[in-house]
Amino acid sequence: MQGVERKHATMSEKKMTSSRRHVLKSLILTIAAKWLDEEKAADIAAKEEYMTEHCVKPSMSGDQATLMEACKKLHTLLDKLDEERYDLLSKVGKADKEIEDLNIKLVDVRGVKKPALRKVRMSADAMLKALLGSKHSVNMDLRANLKQVKKEVKEEPQEAAGDWRKNVEDKADRKKMFEAT
């Protein structure tokens, strides 16, 4: 009896109404959306913190010559960064092209995997209609195009099949021939 009660208890636990499932799904989605919002806010705060640490605000005090010198330093730094970025982009492009070539070689070595064909029941007319489109209506009644061949009935002589006594007498004569020798 305990086994039956356990089975009944597990069956009732497994069943869930669609409304309950919908409520749980919506709760999970709202919690996930809240987590995503918190993660975005944390990312923004981390970016701001990084910028305040690494990018010190420039001091605007001083004459025009010091400001021009600071601008020239910034331009040289930007040029250097642009060169690095260009070099990295070219390396990435080269690596991507190499990966694509290797993938092509891999497909060539493995061979293209052909999908398993499914058996489709389709008449010849339906197949031609699918291939050629609905404009062409071709009748593929192959039996209509065949030639009619009439079978000739051979008449066998009934004498051989009908007169069995004669056959028996012939065999008896042969037996006498063998006995005579």
UniProtKB/TrEMBL annotation:
Keywords, in A-Z order: Actin-binding, Muscle protein
Organism: Pagothenia borchgrevinki (Bald rockcod)
Entry similarity comment: Belongs to the troponin I family.
GO molecular function, a single term: actin binding
Purpose: Troponin I is the inhibitory subunit of troponin, the thin filament regulatory complex which confers calcium-sensitivity to striated muscle actomyosin ATPase activity.
Gene3D superfamilies, A to Z: 1.20.5.350, 6.10.250.180
Pfam family of the protein (one): Troponin
UniProt keyword tRNA processing present: no
Name by which UniProt lists this protein: Troponin I
Lineage: Eukaryota, Metazoa, Chordata, Craniata, Vertebrata
Region (Disordered): 151-181
